[in-house]
Amino acid sequence: MESVVEDIELKRKLKNSNKNINNVSFDENEEKAKFLALFPEIVAAMVNKFARVPDIASRVKKMMEYNSAGGSKARGLMTVRAYQRLESPDKITDETMRLARILGWCVELFQTSLLILDDMADKSTTRRGAVCWFRLPDVGDLAINDSLLILTIIFDMLKENFGDRSCYPDILYTFNETLRHLCFGQYDPPPKDFSQFTIEQFNRYSIDRRSYYTFKLPIYISLLLANKADKNVFNTVEEIFEEMGLLLSMQNDYNDCFGDEKVEGKAGTDIQEGKCTWLAVQALARGGDAARAQLEACYGRSDAASECRVRTLYEELRLPELYRDEERAMTNRILDRIKALPNDNKLPPMLILEMFQMIQDMRMIEYNSAGGSKARGLMTVRAYQRLESPDKITDETMRLARILGWCVELNDYIDCFGDEKENGKSGTDIQEGKCTWLAVQALARGGDAARAQLEACYGRADAASECRVRTLYEELRLPELYRDEERAMTNRILARIKALPYDNKLPPMLILEMFQMIQDMRVD
Fold it and tell me: What is d(CA 336, CA 334) in angstroms, rounded to the nearest whole number?
């Protein structure tokens, strides 16, 4: 909690002391809604451009919608935030904000184009929780062409919206320069060429891959839109952006290996591809000849056994603990460097802090809010709709109801953080020895023999003990008992709802809808 308080104080100090930043209000949720609302208009404009070739128009629509779904839209929103913070307040209009959002979508589509190619190179299976574009039946290697087509769409958007502005040539150059750095960053050392797996190589590739298009691109094109571009604007913050890029690369590498596909939205492939990652570099640096021999035998191989041995090596070298320590240290260094910037810095420290926090916050919220039915949050909204007087329901009150719903969802995830069942993984009740309905029924129906079996096996983590407990449950016919009891309880609940008076303070229809919502989402 202390670090949170310090961070709030840092933001307040920077906001009050910096003269290069305007303090116009910025509602992140409202802006994201406006940003997303612009996308159908962008898609429609591109589809219309290809209207003379219906097949291409249809493919462009599908390609843009499929590949832009999901994700935090952090880089696009950072572009809008940067413009709003850097522009003079009297020059911010609905039209300039629309242009800032178009620039933001150009950044997002730029990333989309690169991710399509990245997924092909990595032979990935999923991206943002969906099957990778190139793996769809009617796509395949044509994804390369699709990626290039998206780049042409970006250039079209820039010409149509900024072609008559003096900033247009520099915006084009900035996108091209960013693409060049990204290309440099893809020249990783050859797989398993461990002589090149050094922290210096990792840092160089990470800066090219992450720093430019995550931080520099959104800021510089925003400065161009505000007519405040300066070639020396990054001089005082170069090292900060580089370290922010290194932190993102380290986090990405760690999550590729130890993250959960369901919450990361993609399956990790770094080990199979033999990539020069932060984990591999640290293993070679800390594990000596034994670690090198293990990696030479297993790294860069696609079989599950080799991948497992590499993960085990990382754990034996305590790299997860090292990662957490290094992540914390890097975050603190970045915040200290932002705090040390002069108040009259060309890039306001407050803006840099906001961009850093936006990336980190969206990673955290995506991780903890991924998956799930969102039933409790949706029930909050449904309850408000049913209970409020119709004449008092407005867009603003519905927005507040949805915010309350998300508060419920986030609280639920935080409460359950680390609970594998909530995250869609295998259950752990048997291993944890929990007092569950199944365990209670087994003790009540199985007598001394069941008790002895549970005393020997319940609450143990090995697979054999878990299997014996499951077998006991089946022998006692608890699955059949569960289905009978579930049916009987459902009927009792429905009968009780039906018996409620129509003028009940909580409308019977609302209670029925909430019950059905939970049941329907369980089925989904």
Answer: 5
